[in-house]
Amino acid sequence: MTLPVLRVRHHSVIGGRDGDVPACASVGPAGEVAALWTTPEGLGPVTSTTVSAAGAWFPDPAAARPAAARITVHTPDLAAVTPIADLALSHITVQPMPGGQFLVAGARCRWRHDGPDRNGVLYDADGQVVAEGVLGDGIGHVLAASDGQVWVGYFDEGIYGNYGWGQPGAGEPVGAYGIVRFSPGLEPVWHYPRYSEVGPWDAISDCYALNVDERCVWACYDSDFPVVRIRDDAVTGWHNDIKGASALAVAGSRVALFGGYGPDHDRLAVAELGAGRAQPAGQYRVVLPGGEPLSAGIQVIGRGSRLHFLTGASWYQLDMDDIPA
User: Fold this and answer.
1) What's the confidence (pLDDT) of residue 46?
2) 250 within 8 A of 270, measured Cβ to Cβ
3) Predicted local confidence at residue 49, as pLDDT
4) Do residues 165 and 175 touch, judged by C-beta distance below 8 A?
5) pLDDT for position 135
6) Which pLDDT score, from 0 to 100, does residue 42 have?
7) pLDDT at position 275, please?
8) Which of 60, 83, 136, 197 has a beta carbon 3.0–4.6 Å from 48's, enabling a disulfide?
């Protein structure tokens, strides 16, 4: 089916200095981009190709070698640079934290008899380590709120267990509930309900999409892909027929679900939330400003009412106001 197109808006260029290798980039609570850069030796060889249902692959936690790194913040112009002397996590994501601090999290975490890997590291504005924590294995999303609360969404291996988690004698996976909130000091303080505790919504098998704004948290997950809102630790949900979305944005009762399986990788589906169901209200193909298709490796992150598209050095945006009513 041929769909109408929506063009993203070019917002900024995210660039490093000569010799920098981009390791990751993400969107902070104020809509800023935090990018982490390292050297060509950076994060070591890839020794595993674990694939989540959402389509991302994650290397083994032992693949990383300590490396020097830099974190840059873009608002959209370059606003801050923080050097990191000794980075030793693989498949990382970075989030700005209060007081000029940064959280760097590795997607993989191995359970060991002498203690699991501490795959969350908090750095101060000078790049010094101020705290470390166990965020668990199988991390698909890490988004911090403006108060420093950290929301983590897990893919299936982090929920059901891998790298020693869930085995006889080992602890329950940190991500067993699919979504966990951590304190600014990286201690788990809340988790998504499971089974009968969550009412009509199934337990999370894979957290596909996560959005943290100033008032609440939104998610869409397998199984059955309901759209759920977490506000004051209470869950409200809407049944949803749009499957496989990897990012979402919300404004009022309108929700935009981006992505899907196969040919729907660049689809944006709009729905109205009401009476316990997300009612379909239109579908589009998302393209670049010149009409070119999105690249296969584009990263899409929802924050509040806005979707951020990060690819190469380019930062694009699409707001709910840009989507026809």
Assistant:
1) 33
2) no
3) 33
4) no
5) 98
6) 52
7) 93
8) 60
- The answer to pTM > 0.70 is yes
Question: Is the distance from CB of 223 to CB of 205 less than 8 angstroms?
Answer: yes
CA distances from 131 to 39, 75, 122, 271 (A): 24, 26, 5, 41
Residue segments in the chain with a per-residue pLDDT below the cut of 70: 1, 40-66, 195-198
CB-based burial of residue 41 (10 Å sphere; 0-12 exposed, 13-18 middle, 19+ buried)?
exposed
Q: What is the pLDDT of residues 73-88, one digit of tens each?
A: 999 999 999 999 889 8
